Amino acid sequence: MGSDSEAEKPHQKEKKKIVALAPIAKPLAGKKLCKRTLKLVRKAAEYKCLKRGVKEVVKSIRRGHKGLCVIAGNISPIDVITHVPILCEESDICYIYVPSKEELANAGSTKRPTCCVLVQTKPNKGELGSNEQEKLKADYDQVVAEVSELTSSLI
């Protein structure tokens, strides 16, 4: 009887994630795209071309910086991030929702849960070698292409 409840625990956690999602969390990344996106966020954090948190992301977007905006879908209260997708659309920046703010923070090398991050297209000059920059750009392009495809299918 103990083994049944242990087998159900991971499934119950998965249900909680889905139930806690905000109703505006569209386009939401699937499992594969979510993994790829979080991997990109992890690399961007490593190479110092990542903006974390609503304030930093909004400031960067208003300054004209381009990139990929990754927003957590389980934010409460939802009013904290409702303006971010609108800003992204006005600035022609792709954005995607991921299910968990904790996973997003973990990928972004932060201990605190993070509402949103902006993966910038161009890292700071002199930070990366050309080989590393090409790898990051290739991953970035792949994720942006998938996000664009997902977004166009929703319209």
What does this structure look like?
- InterPro entries: eL8/uL1-like, H/ACA_rnp_Nhp2-like, Ribosomal_eL30-like_sf, Ribosomal_eL8/eL30/eS12/Gad45, Ribosomal_eL8/Nhp2.
- It is found in: Nucleus, Nucleolus.
- By secondary structure, the protein is an alpha+beta fold.
- The chain has a single domain, classed as Ribosomal protein L30/S12 (60s Ribosomal Protein L30, Chain: A, 2-Layer Sandwich).
- It has six helices and four strands, in the order H-H-E-H-E-H-E-H-E-H.
- It has a four-stranded mixed β-sheet, sandwiched between helices.
- Helix 2 runs parallel beside helix 5 and helix 2 packs antiparallel against helix 6.
- The protein starts with a helix and ends with a helix.
- The model has no long low-confidence stretch (mean pLDDT 86).
